[in-house]
Amino acid sequence: MCSAFFSARSRGRSASRACADPLTSRRVAVLGLGLIGSSLGLALKHQSSPPTIVGFDPNRQASDSARSHHAIDRAAGSASEAIRDADTVILAAPVRGIIELLSTIGSEVAEDVLVTDTGSTKLEIISHAASVFSGRVGFIGGHPLAGRLRIGVAEPDARLFVGSVFCLCPTPDSPAWAVERATDLVEAIGARPQFLDPTEHDALLAGISHLPYFASAALMDAVGSQTGWPGMSALAAGGFRTATSLVDSSTEMWTDVALTNAGPLGRQLDALITVLSALRQMVSEGDAKQIKATLDRANVIHREWVRSREGEQTAPPAQTNPQPSRRFPFLRG
Fold first, then answer.
1. Is 179 in the same domain as 260?
2. Between the CA of residue 273 and those of 61, 202, 213, 279, what are the distances in Å?
3. What gap in Å lies between CA 132 and CA 321, rounded to an integer?
4. 155 CB contacts (<8 Å, ≥6 apart)?
């Protein structure tokens, strides 16, 4: 891989041509400088030949933090200013914030610019991007499965994405060059690209990302709203803290998730309610056999999942990083 950021590696092009590729990014705009946006900027600044990174965030504290940690070279006063002359634009805000940013910059983004995002849901963002850009711009929806449980401005981490999965959601209208450059971006920060259809992404993440948060919030609300909570809170320890830890994250972000992924999330909530209702019946009836069977089944599924992920960590990249053309025939040359 040549030293230039976003260089094509060996996808049918020589290294010398890749380094001279006019699509190689030299100026990146990051709109949204929370943990994800500022960590992306810092990871890109750690490249051997880093691009110039201009950031924008309406929160002055976030902009100042990103600049003081050298995650950006300059803080712009507006989204329009930040994207000026950029050849790559990263939208790193909550979902509805990303949709608003798309409307704001839609007519101002030049052709052949890669635009991507980090939103937790994809279908609504990608649909809006298609209507805003009308095929002029290479938009690839993205979602890094990385982060920390902390509200507010957090210190950026250049290694936040190393070894993590980064979902990319191309569509039949996605230019091949945009898919390639988005893939290069993901690999440059040490993440593993996983190619998904937007609808598939939202359905899968509803179960393994969105439902856990809402279940954690429901548990905290159900117990914490009881009159006996003061006494319970004095005894609550590691187990309760772990089970409710997801609550300590941005409620704005999770409200956006609920509103933009209502169907899949609703189905997952129904599935959880069904299991809880069954457990409630078993407890009422004192059905020890069925209670144990339910708990054993969950235990086995969890252990199998943990073992499979342990094996995944040692698998070679070729096995965990399928080329997009294998999943999306429309990207084949």
1. no
2. 41, 20, 15, 10
3. 30
4. 65, 69
Query: Do 168 and 241 belong to one domain?
Result: no
What Rg value do the Cα atoms of the chain yield, rounded?
22
Tell whether 93 and 223 lie within a shared domain: no
Q: In whole angstroms, what is the distance from residue 133 CA to residue 174 CA? A: 12
pLDDT of 319 higher than 90: no
At 318 the pLDDT is 41
Answer yes or no: is pLDDT of 56 > 70. yes
Report whether pLDDT(84) > 70. Answer: yes
74 and 126 in one domain? yes
Contacts of 233 (CB under 8 A, 6+ apart): 224
DSSP state of 49: B
pLDDT band at residue 324 under the 50/70/90 scheme: low
CATH of the domain at 22: 3.40.50.720
Structure token digits, residue 71: 């995650």
> The pTM is what?
0.85
Closest CA to 145 of 130, 162, 158: 162
Q: Residues 288, 290, 293, CA angle at the centre, nearest 5°? A: 105
In a domain, 96, yes or no: yes
pLDDT value for 197: 96
Among 317, 324, 333, 330, smallest CA distance to 195 is for 324
- Is residue 217 one of the residues assigned to a domain? yes
User: What sections of the chain are H helices per DSSP?
Assistant: 15-19, 35-45, 60-68, 79-83, 95-105, 123-133, 176-188, 198-205, 211-224, 229-235, 238-244, 251-260, 262-285, 288-314, 317-320, 324-327
Total number of domains in the chain: 2
Tokens coding 60 = 């002055």
The percent of the chain in helix, strand and coil, each rounded to the nearest 5, is: 55, 10, 35
Query: Cα(157)–Cα(62) distance, rounded to whole angstroms?
Result: 14
Domain hosting residue 238, numbered range: 201-285
